[in-house]
Amino acid sequence: MDNVHDSQNTIGMDYRPREVVAILHHSTNAIVGRLGDDTVLKYPRYAWWDFPGAEQKYHLVQTAKASFLTEGEILTILGDHPRIVKFLGRSEPEGFKFAEADKGNLQQYIDSSFHTMTPEIQAAWCLQAVEAIVYLHTKDVIHSDLRPENLLLYSRANGGIEMRLCDFGGSTYGEEIGLNLPDPGFFDTRKVPIPTPATDIFSLGSVFYTIMTGHWPHWADGEELSAYGRRVDELFSRGEFPTVSNLYGGSVIQGCWNGKYVTANELLLDCRQVFNDGRGI
Q1: pTM reported for the whole predicted model
Q2: In b/e form, how buried is each residue of 90-107, taking b as 16+ CB within 10 angstroms?
Q3: Residues 16-41, mean pLDDT to the nearest whole number
């Protein structure tokens, strides 16, 4: 089983919880593994508790620990909510248990099944995404890393699919400034790189765009991710955004990008009108 849990950390200190039966996802600070009972475990890449002084020696370890401390506090603040990933408790010595997203995440779904996404599904998921952010902001939390990969999809008893937001390790809450800013294509490079509610609202515009088109803003097939990031950051810095006038929900996408909405709740009110009128353009 060692190879199943191997995070291949260049500095070692791998954490390998034995109850994990399969690895689902790797990120900079964490690994997500399946526990085999419709539950997943999000655990640190580095077992800092077994290596005294590791935080002082390695910035990577310091960052990972800070991310898990932040996420634990925010999960407690958020509690149970239909638009937030279902938190099932902590794991010792470190980690979080969540209900597994049986439909994966939004990015995976778009990549594999965009052709099956009806306007009704697109509208519902746009509404659910903004509902998640409205709830976060009422709790004084700014996600600050909003993108399709962080929106999880779950089967519903009626055969539908619902969306829940995850990954709060780099989020901002209260006076505690988080470690994250959104990825290129989801961040307004015209702004000072400090998380604010406007950060999430802008990102929602790009999430909506991706839901409606099947690709990120200004995406070009075959382009390397790093090249895309540089190009889209430059375009956004000049206020150059894709044309959305012909898209379902184009008015709210443009509004997110152009700073029309002061609060996420204002955006939600607009979304409810646009996505419920049967037209949405």
Answers
A1: 0.92
A2: ebeebbbbbebbebbbbe
A3: 90
